[in-house]
Amino acid sequence: MRVKTGIEGFDELIEGGFLKDRQYLVSGSPGSGKSTFGVQFLAAGALAGEAGAYVVLSESADTIVEDMSRYALHIEELVNKKKLFFLDLGPTTKYGEYEEVSQFITPNYEQHEAESPDNAPPTPYSVFKNVEAVVKQHNIKRLVIDSLSAIRFTSSHPAQEEKSIGRFIRNLKTLGCTTLLLSELTKPDAYTIEQFASHGVIFLHNFLDNQKGMVRALQIIKMRGTKHDCEMRVIEFTNKGLIVLKPLKKY
Ligand SMILES: Nc1ncnc2c1ncn2[C@@H]1O[C@H](COP(=O)(O)OP(=O)(O)OP(=O)(O)O)[C@@H](O)[C@H]1O
Ligand SMILES: [Mg+2]
User: Fold this and answer.
1) Cβ-contact 215, 209 below 8 angstroms
2) CB-defined site of ligand 1, < 6 Å
3) Of 48, 148, 191, 242, which is the most buried if we count CB atoms within 10 A?
4) How many CB atoms lie under 10 A from the CB of residue 174?
């Protein structure tokens, strides 16, 4: 069964939509449209009766709600109807507290079953446990995690961290939700564990082209079990979010 994304011009590039209950990575540069993509996906589901949750890890949920409510996507109404949830699971850490609490951070699920202290930055484990509870409580079917980058870099052991992120994604598979993992795209040519572990990878670009000026584009890098478009396609932001247009080379 295909899950419609609600993003104009996108579903037809991936045989009609995402595969249900799978995890997809939406990776992009700053301001490339990751949050917009995520909110459109949730709003489309919520309008069709499927509850969705947007998990905010990298900034305050209030800011995201405020920014995303500027789009004509009925965000406020869907939140009031309990079809759309914004969860603030980001760090509450204030200046000076981080060093003190860093000793509690562990990416290992088995070793550390206890919840993190209130002021600790989120760990993959604490985020997963919180998300799991909300998914069960509100029968959530669509999930957005903003962003995976926020629960990276919480360990001083890079190898452990890779394992921990892989484990986080594998654990998400047990929740019965179609999930978008948002992440920062720092080096497009460097393969990360989240790219391997996800069922599909979408890149969002926002860059300066010598001839074309500022270019905003979307590219489908991988989509397991799906015949998909591979072009770099121009995207535009409208009052209903982003829309996907023609391949960049045709402009
Ligand atoms: N209401 C709106 N109407 C049209 N375009 C908008 C609107 N709101 C935001 N945008 C455009 O979308 C861009 C940001 O999109 P978005 O917040 O989804 O990106 P992001 O990749 O999540 O950014 P970040 O890396 O900061 O999290 C803005 O820079 C702006 O160009
Ligand atoms: Mg964002």
Assistant:
1) yes
2) 28, 30-36, 70-71, 237, 239
3) 148
4) 11
Determine the pLDDT at residue 191. Answer: 86
Rounded to the nearest whole angstrom, what is the distance from the C-alpha of residue 31 to the centroid of ligand 2? 7
Give me the mean pLDDT over the 164-171 stretch: 94
Question: For helices 34-47 and 61-68, what crossing angle results, to 10°?
Answer: 70
Cis peptide leading into residue 58 (ω within 30°): no
This model's pTM is above 0.85:
yes
Measured CA to CA, the distance from residue 115 to residue 246 in angstroms comes to 47
Q: Whose CA is nearest to atom 30 of ligand 1?
A: 31
Structure tokens at 203: 């890149």
Pick the CATH number of 2-250 from 3.40.50.2300, 3.30.450.40, 3.40.50.300, 3.40.1390.10: 3.40.50.300
Query: H/E element holding 146?
Result: strand 142-146
- Evaluate whether 121 touches 89 at the Cβ level (below 8 Å): no
- Give the domain ranges of the chain: 2-250
